[in-house]
Hints:
By secondary structure, this protein is α+β, with helices and mostly antiparallel strands. The chain has helices spanning about 5-15, 20-30, 40-50, 55-60, 65-75, 125-140, 140-145, 225-240, 275-280, and strands spanning about 85, 105-110, 115-120, 160, 175-180, 180-190, 195-200, 245-250, 255-260. Helix 3 (about 40-50) packs across helix 9. The longest helix is centred in the N-terminal third of the chain and has 13 residues, at about 20-30. The radius of gyration is 19 Å and the shape is globular.
Amino acid sequence: MASLQYRLFSKAVGLLPDIIKLNLLYFRRFNAFLNLKSPKTFNEKLQLRKIKDRNKLLSIAADKLKSKEFASSVSSQLYIPKTLYVGDSPSFIDDLDLSKLPSDYVFKANHTSQTIEIIRGSKHLSKNRMKRLAKSWLKHDQSLSLGEWAYQDIPRKIFVEEFLDFEGEAPDDYKFFVYHGKVHFIQLDSDRFTNHSRNMFDYEWNELGFEYSYKRKSPAPEKPLFLNEMIRISEELGAYFDFIRVDLYYYNKMITFGELTVYPGAGFEKFPDKKYDLLFGQPWIQSY
């Protein structure tokens, strides 16, 4: 749980106008002034997107339920995890028959990130616990504290989703940085629940050789046989945006949808050197 100091700071900052808020947070994180007039780095361009980009598709991408519908409509070859139950208030949990739920499933919120509970082996949360979580999640406004506009109008819902069983292992998480419909970079997160590692590649699977928030796996994982198909699907989805990160898995021999990420790291994830921030910003041509 976040510290009281952090929660008070976030609440206070959330009340500021976006431009002031983002300048303050950017300086606090990078010890540098935010360039919004002529942004060059990836993180600067993400901040400009928060302020300027009002493409309604961004809200669909950030909406966990609607993004699944969108992805399904764009790519028929993509497996979409099933939505089992949806509710817009904690009271919907009263009608859940826990005995009819699968033994493994995911309980999560639609309109915000990092609000998730994974249930395994029929070890259900009590309904009171689920309702407390739902009440807390439904109050959260992700658009406020970090200026992430796309979350502003997402319907606040709680839902139960199919759990994808990767034989007890954390699945490899493939994240494709898609600019104007073309994949330029790939992030691979491995062993997330044991020894989280992260490798960064270009679109041809040449490792870029830097650590990005987590240690690199060395030697780097080999290029998977399904990578070209993942790239194709990512570019189909990314064709609707000037930039989007497409997160995919390989589940049961199927390319499987994870999510669409509008603001990776909220624009505050540090590269080890500014040259990489510039490298990831270069393909993104913003017209707003």
